[in-house]
Design brief:
Oligomer: single chain
Largest sheet: 7 strands, antiparallel
Number of strands: 15
Number of domains: 2
Strand content: 25-35%
Shape: elongated
Order of helices and strands: EEEEEEEEEEEEEEE
Helix content: under 10%
Length: 166
Amino acid sequence: MALVLADRVSETTTTSGSGSVTLLGASPNYQSFAVIGNGNQTYYVIAHQSLDEWEVGIGTYSSATPSLSRDTVLSSTSGGAKVTFSAGTKKVFVDYPAEKAVYEDVENNVTVAGNITAGNGILVNADVMASSFTISSGFNGLSVGPFTIGASATLTIASGQRHIIL
């Protein structure tokens, strides 16, 4: 399962309650959630079209119904909990939530709460590497500053590869 984002994805639903929503097809001039891919997660917004009910979260697309599960709520009109949606039409669309956004602030700084990991073997981390990490064959790693591997974490380096600490 991967986190997938796509542009101009919007459908409607008439599902009520707090469970998964059944998707009713692409809105005019938009793509359907099918572009996310079966079993993949995406950021979503569900917004009731005539009531003040909305939810922003992370959900999993299923092509079988088609539907979108509501796995993690990031913000909502229910104080950050799942909304129990009333009857009526709701718009469901892919979004890039402010809570998950990475951006440069007015002082030209970029701050990320967790580690930054790139597929090329680069790991930017805090003083303590809390999660396990593998530097795969064909890649090397670099850490800067005091570097400690946490008690429950491991650093695996493929044979012939290097990890350099500056």
